[in-house]
Structure formats: structure tokens, C-alpha cells
Design goal:
The chain is of the alpha+beta class. It has helices at residues 20-30, 36-48, 55-69, 99-107, 124-135, 155-171, 207-213, and strands spanning 7-14, 77-81, 86-91, 111-117, 140-146, 180-183, 226-228, 231-235, 239-245, 250-252, 256-260, 268-277, 280-282, 284-286, 290-296, 308-311, 319-328, 342-345, 348-361, 368-371, 381-388, 405-410, 413-425. It contains seven helices and 23 strands. It starts with 6 loop residues before the first strand and ends in a 5-residue tail after the last strand.
Amino acid sequence: MAREKPNMNVVFVGHVDAGKSTTIGRLLFDSGVVSEQEMVKLRQEAEKHGKAGFEFAFVMDKIREERERGITIDLSYKKIMTQKYQVTIIDAPGHRDFVKNMITGASQADCAFLVVAATSGIEPQTKEHLWLLKTMGVQNLGVIINKMDMISYDEAKFNKLKQEVTDLVKGVGYKAENVAFIAASGQKGDNVSKKSTNMAWYKGPTVIEQIDLFPKPELPTNLPMRMPVQDVYEITGIGTVPVGKIETGIMKVGQKVIVLPGRSGKGVEGEVKTIEMHHEAMPEATAGDNVGINVRGVGKKDIARGDVICESANPIPIVEEFIANIIVINHPTVIAKGYTPVFHIHTAQVPCQFTELIEQIDARTGQVIKTNPDFLKNGDAAKVRIRPQGNLCLETQKTNPYMSRFAIRDAGATVAAGMCVEIVKKKAIV
């Protein structure tokens, strides 16, 4: 099957009650992915649960529950067609406890919408989500100021909030002039798929138009093939099916691959037997595709979330230690040598220890402020040496930027984020 349109992975992020799921539900309904019949059922379901008006949110939330039971391959994603793209929508939970899923979502996205409620404005999570998007390399950003119906479609209130969010966006390093602000109501459908008749003053794009205004993703197909594993399913009649996004390179049926680090820490070799995307078998898939695959020689026990499937001839390194540039976002005290939080790198989560604080850097100019600082506090940027406390696959920013970024989390919050600039490989295990 020839590909009609390029793929675009869009992640929606925002605080827990900003109305993300409702906006996505509305988008799916208006673009015909969810039928009128289904919508009626969801509306009744919502009323039954005493949540009238939540029917659009139920579109995505129903999926989330199914996803947790692991029924089929691509339920965490929904596909819609725009004029220009085949769009995969990733709904990233906004609740604090779900930030690790949101990191995975952000690491798979080509562009993002930050959803901010007009009623409550900027929330603590709003800034954290922006930092994460920036660190995970999401270049293209739109901001949906949602729930405009609840503030009587007031232009002055919209402009005030737009200014506050603009300051925040600039603070994390996005160019404000490249960020689209959309006045919308997911609940009522204003400016989601259809132009609103309630805001004559708003001249910008709808959400669906904005997706087409984002630049076409540049696919790093020239880099070695890397597919971080998001989940592993057992599917009757097929066997073990790892699912994930191909970050770089091209995967082909018949390709010799190695799963690293694998349960053993020295990898498992196999051969790609089938590749499936949105329930269709493909002879090959390229960077940017979310796929489910079956690998001959690789069983359920050999592979887990956080492993990376690579081409055998060009495997990803397993690192002994690495040097990274980081920015401290939100630490309750300070970061010092010996600190061992959890690093979220592609889909892996591995505790890593800070073994040396090499230098503190001015984040804006890149100049060294201090060598071997005693500690790092919020807002500080630094070059640090890190030692993983388990098997970890990672590449440098220079070799493969897509496999070099990470977020650092501790006690339920993202404390820092960064990228790897140098690695020391593990000695081969004989």
C-alpha cells in the first residue's frame, strides 16, 4: 500500500482539567473517526456516571482503560486525516502521576498543543510540560486557550492569558512568534474543526488547520534504525509483538536486528518477520512511524519496555557512564554528587547516579560560570558525569539526537532534563 500522506505525530499536553481529552474527542468526532451513534452512546454513558458534558472526554478515556488492559496494538493513539497529513494523536495524561507517560508521549511527537483552560489559566504543570516538550526536542508548538465558552468568549481575557503564556513559552526557549495561540472550546466545538461563530474577533486558525500549518516532520531515515519499545503484547496467532515508534532509520521485513540491552544485558538477536501500522501489514516502516512488529527469535521473556530494537550491523551502545548537559527545572533542594534519581530516556527508566558536577554553564550563552560546583539548584544548567545503576542504551547528541535526550524524575516530579554529549561504552560481557 502506497502512503498517501506524510505522518504527523501530535501530542496534546496540559494540566489535568484543562480539557485535553474533550478537545481531542471533539476533533475525532468532527473528523468522523467517532460516529454519531458512538457519540450518543458515550453521552448516555457520561450521564449515567453523573458526568453530563464529558462525552467527548470519554472518547479518549475509554481508550485509556482499554489500553491498560492491553487489548489491541494502537489504542493509545488515534488516527485522523487532515488535508495534508495522516495524523496520529497522542493524548498525554496531565495528572502528576502520569508525567512519565507524558514524557514518552512527548518523545514521540513531531508537534504539540499545550492546552490551557481560560478559566484557571497557568497551572504548576503548565511550565513543567513546556520544559519537557522543549527538552524532548518538540520544536513546533501551538497553544489552545480552551473553555472560552466559560468566560463568555471574552477577547480581553484571552489576550491577557495569551500574554502570560507567551512569557512562559519564551522562558523555556521557544520563539514566541512561531507559536500559534488558538481561542477554542472543546466542549462546544469552537475553533476545533470548525470556525467559531461566537468569536468574530478571532482571526487565527482552528486546531485542525493549525496541524496542517506545522512544518512537515523531517524524517531522520539516514541514521541507523532505532525503535525504543513502548509495550510488548502477546497476540494470539502472531506471538510476541513489541510496539513503539521508530525514532530513526528504516525497518524492513527480513532485517537482522538486535534487542538491547534485553533481559540479559547483552542483547537478543532476531529477524523482523512482520511490521504492522494501524492494522495494516507493511514491507517496511520509517522513522516517525508507530508500529507493532514480530521478530523471529525474540519471545516475551527477551524483551521489555525500555529496550531498543536496532539493526544488528549498527547497534546502540550500552553505556558504562556518560557526560550530559542538564538544566535543573524543579528540585526541592539542590542536586549534589551522589544523587541517584530515575532517568527517563526514550522509553527506558533507569536509576542513575551523579558522579561528578563538571561545570556550571550559563544556559543562555553557553559560557562556563564555575568548574566543579558543589551543588546545582533550580534554573542552573551544567555539564555532569552520570553512571547508570542498570543497563542503559544511549547515544550522544552528535551521533543521534533522537536517542540522546532524557528527563530526570524524583518523588513524582520532573527535577531536571538534558541530553547526552559523551559516552563510555560498557565492556562486552563474555
